[in-house]
Specification:
This protein has 242 residues and is α+β, with helices and mostly antiparallel strands. It has helices at residues 4-10, 16-24, 115-122, 142-150, 189-196, 227-236; strands spanning 2-3, 28-30, 33-34, 41-42, 48-50, 53-54, 62-67, 96-97, 105-112, 130-137, 153-154, 157-158, 163-170, 175-182, 201-209, 212-213, 222-224. The longest helix is centred in the C-terminal third of the chain and has 10 residues, at 227-236.
Length: 242
Amino acid sequence: MERLQKVIAQAGVASRRKAEQLIVEGKVKVNGKVIKELGTKVSGNDEVEVDGIPLYKEEHVYFVLYKPTGVISSVQDEKGRKVVTDYLYGVEQRVFPVGRLDYDTSGLLLLTNDGDLANKLMHPKFNVEKKYIAKVEGIPSKEVLLNLTRGIVLGDGKTKPAKTKLISGDRRKNTSIIEITISEGRNRQVRRMFEAIGHPVKKLKREKYGMLNLLGMNPGDVRELKPFEVKQLKQLTVTEKS
């Protein structure tokens, strides 16, 4: 027996959090009966429907998208803006993004219908590293960047230590390029961290997610992960990191 929201997530319909929302909203039926209790457990013999569509277990698929700026990290947008799944031509499975990148942020975004792995990758206990390249206002000193490596207090608490590297500085334009690696996934975290040290972000790109990178890809490109890459991703969620 498995919790209903987990079964929905594993089937690739939505993330576990979204699945819980669907249950609470009365959009899920088990054996023809609407279920709104999050603690409900079901077996493989139960018939589950989501929004009137019977649930079946899809083959898991995994993709990397080089998300362009001006694209929503969602499967749909009520304002009709372009979303990340618009780039997955010919993919029959119902995939969703693992985490998100802001509308104005470009870079590597993982998409899958493997809800169990997605939830593990996003869980803070596994500290999956994400590397970004940021163009910021001004040229921060080593002492200022040291604040980020120690952790900095934001409105939602202190961040975990980040890794930073000043790549270049342009004194004429008063901007700099900085590499920063974090192991959390808070809302607009990198932008808020740089704002907190007085160097707002002008441009931001995620270059790596775990061991995945964007080598050979251009904005809008999509590629399916190789089996060994999927195995490496799953390995990231085996051991908790302090």
